[in-house]
Amino acid sequence: MKKTIAKIEHAAKEGVQILCLQELYHTHYFPQEEQQDAKKYSETIPGKSVTVFSELAKKYKIVIIVPLFEQAANGKFYNSAVVIDADGKLLGTYHKIHVPQDPMFYEQNYFELGDLGYNVYDTAYAKISVLICYDQWFPEAARICTLKGADILFYPTAIGYIKGHTSADGDWHDAWQTVQRGHAIVNGVHVAAVNRVGVEGKLEFWGGSFICDAFGCVIAKAGSEEETLITKIDLSFNKRIREGWGFLKNRRPDTYKSLIEK
Predict the structure, then answer these.
(1) Above 90 in pLDDT, residue 141?
(2) Has residue 260 been placed in a domain?
(3) Within a domain: 261
(4) Among 11, 21, 148, 174, which one is most buried in terms of CB atoms within 10 A?
(5) pLDDT beyond 90 at 261
(6) Are 135 and 158 in contact (CB under 8 A)?
(7) What is the pLDDT of residues 12-27, one digit of tens each?
(8) Can you tell me the mean pLDDT for 186-198?
(9) Which residues contact 200 (CB under 8 A, 6 or more apart)?
(10) Domain harbouring 42, CATH code
(11) Catalytic residue positions?
């Protein structure tokens, strides 16, 4: 937390207005273990992280997105993200809706399925939505957030390669970036993906955090080492893409009923 505070302060002094941390920012990625007692990594909302970062948000007049392992008031545990506005006030919490259950990513053993829906947060600087990691593979989530008014989609993430595993599917990293750039294009929104870096157990997180504009062009990209990625974006470009390509106005919701059929 001390390290994160220092990095937030540095970013704020560099002019950052909206800042997003990586998925489960203050713990190691414990779901790579199939079974363990992870309760010690959890915290409440409000809790220590929210209190500390609310003070920083208010001090520097910045919006902070804080992904963490939450123990909710109902006693259940969620993979969550808190959105704190530039006045230090809590705008809301998102519970990860799409929760994977794969080798090295045993998240359903630790997290309940998200129950708070998709939300747009009207911050001091932009209307944003927060989705978490595995959510980034589902176009429905990005579309719903866009239709609700989001200008930027933030995806705090923990993804990488499994040591010793070679996938026959192809380049995971390329697919990961491609699908998110696709969300940007078809929705006319900016996308910011914030990934972990480094080696934890059998996982090698590839970093590669990036920001792309509303036509999927990557305008800033991080490498595989830890860094703070800062860039300026032009949200008026969203309107240009939406009006020019018509992906929203030419939708045919009357033909989409099969999407909600199991």
Answers:
(1) yes
(2) no
(3) no
(4) 21
(5) no
(6) no
(7) 999 999 999 999 999 9
(8) 98
(9) 28, 29, 32
(10) 3.60.110.10
(11) 23, 96, 133
